[in-house]
């Protein structure tokens, strides 16, 4: 749960910069927002990987879910018609 707390803290820390950028037009705050959002993206990816690994190792605390029904295969894409020949 430590990662989740860090994620929440990061989002809350960006609030002031979001307000400065969107409400006051402060471009430097926009740069900080972009930097923070990149950090958020990286943290989210780390958490996703951690969750997936824990799930695959059987280390999750959640009850096993029922298997989802298989998805139907997508219909093959129609071939494009050949261009008309010039006379």
TrEMBL record:
Domain of life, per lineage: Bacteria
Region (Disordered): 52-87
Residue ranges with Low complexity bias: 62-81
Free-text function comment from the UniProt entry: Might have a role analogous to that of eukaryotic histone proteins.
Segments forming a coiled coil: none
Protein name, entry field: Histone H1
InterPro entries per the UniProt record, alphabetical: Hc1
Family recorded in the similarity comment: Belongs to the histone H1/H5 family. HCT subfamily.
């Amino acid at each position: 749960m430590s990662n989740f707390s860090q994620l929440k803290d990061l989002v809350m820390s960006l609030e002031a910069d979001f307000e400065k950028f969107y409400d006051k037009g402060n471009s430097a705050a926009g740069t900080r927002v972009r930097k923070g959002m990149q950090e958020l993206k990286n943290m989210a990816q780390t958490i996703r990987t951690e969750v997936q690994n824990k799930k695959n190792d059987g280390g999750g605390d959640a009850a096993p879910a029922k298997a989802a029904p298989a998805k139907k295969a997508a219909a093959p894409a129609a071939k494009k018609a050949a261009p008309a020949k010039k006379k």
